[in-house]
Protein 1
Amino acid sequence: YEAADWYDAESLLTPEERQVLSRLRSFLDAEARPLLAEYWERGEFPEQLARPLIDLDLMEPAELTKDGPARGIYQGFRIFELARTDASLATWYTAQAGLFRTAIRVGASAEQQAEWMPKVIDFSLKGVFSLTEPESGSDIAGGLSTTARRQPDGSWILDGAKRWIGGAATADVLAVFARDTADGQVKAFLVDRTADGVTLEKIHGKTALRMMQNAHITLTGVRVPEAMRLHNVSSFRDVAAMLRAMRSDVAWIATGIATGAFEAALAYVNERRQFGRPLGSFQLVQEKLARMLGNVTASLSLVVRLTEQQAKGIYRDQDSALAKMQTSLFMRDTVALAREVVGGNGITLAAGVARFHADAEAVYSYEGTHEINALIIGRALTGESAFTR
Ligand code: FAD
């Protein structure tokens, strides 16, 4: 572990926080790792890990999140540990602890938060973030076409489709973003997954994040009571505030994936012998190890600093965009180098690198592609928006 956290960023945590992390790490090593290759190949999530992971005190108590984002690097390190073991485990966790919790924290009124947040924290109300649509990904702000029609009795009727929604099949509610037909603005609703008019289709044939299930959701005349509308969402501006907060989680995931691949590669080259010597003794291999370590260390330093800023309440689009973009670039470089030094075994699940190599591609694209994050940074640098319609 020392190699992965070269500058000992974990020493910034309290002893109690480190204890939780250490329990999490032991659980992941003993209970999760042995299952990963098999479940990845089957394209199924190991549901038996869900309850024990929740019981490992993964989320802060409700009182800590009531007034703001209890992100902090402690939360980041928990995401990092999960991703360092498996990207789907980290994505499963951030779907609830990042995406859904942020939707409630930013979008729900004080009364709604008082009712829902404790259940979000203990996972008794499981939710997913349903923003992307079949025809709108990067340009969702302008292209969002799911509609919400207000009814005379105050309820709403939703029509449209959502794509790529992670964890939808096992969620209780879907946080759905839809355009109000009256004022043209984006509103948000908690939709019961089993409500009339909601259909879910599993997206098959994925070559990345195979353990995490993504759904194509169709909404046909779905009635939602006004009480289930997120009262603090009145335009896409509020959705952007959610994205700004969540993107840093993905930077932690990218950092964890790079670290997991690096560690698997390091263990392999110390074991495997060619020309009568361990692979790790060759200069060209050592150069690749050094580059991987550089990527991992730079990423960890970046996310720690970003998260410290956010914990102080400093949220800027360009900050989380920079972290997501740069850690994703480092991740892609690292998983490719890791695969390379493991040779032919690098494309088998058994050597422990191939999963990270494949999964990195999904993380590279979700929650803002490389290009979109680069354009957010470009807009901040020049004052010119290059990606408006
Ligand atoms: P597109 O927008 O079609 O982009 C395709 C390519 O064109 C990209 O390289 C993009 O960068 C580039 N491009 C687009 N516009 C420009 C431009 N102006 N300039 C330069 N290049 C451009 N969404 C949810 O709402 N909830 C989820 O839970 C969720 N989970 C996901 C899980 C996975 C595994 C994946 C793959 C996606 C998930 N998504 C989810 C959707 C994800 O956020 C989108 O895939 C992402 O925003 C990109 O949209 P797109 O795939 O439609 O690509």
Protein 2
Amino acid sequence: MSAFDIQHYDIATTANMTFDEVFSADDVKCTSRFDSPSYNEQQADIPAMAPISPCYSKVSSTSSAANSITGIFSSIDCKYHIDRQVLGSGHYGSVRECIDRVTGQRCAVKSIRKSDPAVKPVDLAREIALLKEMKHRSIIRLADVHEDAEYVHLVTDLCEGGELFDRIIEKCDDDNGTACFSEDEAAKIIYQILTAVSYMHTRGVVHRDLKPENVLYETADEDSPIKVIDFGLSREHREGFEPPMSTVVGTPYYIAPEVLKGRYGKSCDLWSVGVISYILLCGYPPFNGANNNEVHAAVQRGRYRFPSAEWSGTSREAKDFIRRVLQKDPRKRMNAEHALNHPWIVQWIANHGNVDTNARENIEDDRQYISSAKSVFRGFPTSRRKS
Ligand code: ADP
């Protein structure tokens, strides 16, 4: 079976899955878009008009302050013109393009309806606080926040190139005999995600929902830089200073086995990076099933293969990278610094000295960062699992 067939098989068999279920915080909280029906339904439900609010005073009234997330009510449409067309929608809101009425700058605005039962004020406040902290070229930048009686609007940089998810579908739909992304293309994406993950983890932030839907391209160019988005399930966690996290959150294909067990740390993000790497190189997920339970069972078994049809031409380094992040035991899994020092990634950095000035400067910064991280890659345990 070709990568093309498997990709379609996968999507066809998951068509009736309800991965968009959002369970309570104490239960499993899952979000995914491999299940296209609910995504489209969600889009259909979204009002055609952008939520426009009258120009409230900046100071909240007593009655509105009671249900305020940010503590300040201000009208988004006084500052921005919001486009009607929805760029994308997730669990908690729809995203549209907006234009700063003064500067003319184009941004994206995610409008979250506060009365939506799935929206918990404490989670939303946390997403805003975490996003405000994140200042990294591969992480979406929060430019502005507005709140009115009905909505909280998060204004971020606009990513015009769409989701990594869609590029996977496009590339792997292309039945031209090549398996999905080339190693070079995949390593470039993974390298950028890893620098973002390393940045988050250094600051004690765990994303907990890394997946191709949450990786956006800045522009439509094939080699556009990417940005990690959606900190809706993220949290701060000081490993070693507080007990392991226990809330089961994430998305079936990408969720780490220890998360399903309800006892985990930041390395759950590296597992998701491993799953994304695998998919980029072959076009289908390493852990699959006909429904959530089957996918979860496959994740918990932690067994996967490199079928020769798609993997025979893949380098040893790439497979070794995947083996070292898809380690079921999180203690044996590479951390972000180890992963950035892995030969597959280091080789990509070494081969791209002649990229544009900005990218070259970024790579130089990263080189210094990596060497100062003192991570000794050799000595890191390899999986004994045959795959
Ligand atoms: P939610 O938290 O509700 O799940 P997301 O933040 O994941 O919402 O955004 C939903 C979708 O909206 C994304 O998958 C993407 O397609 C689109 N989107 C989000 N942020 C941007 C952005 N900055 N630029 C362009 N599109 C975006």
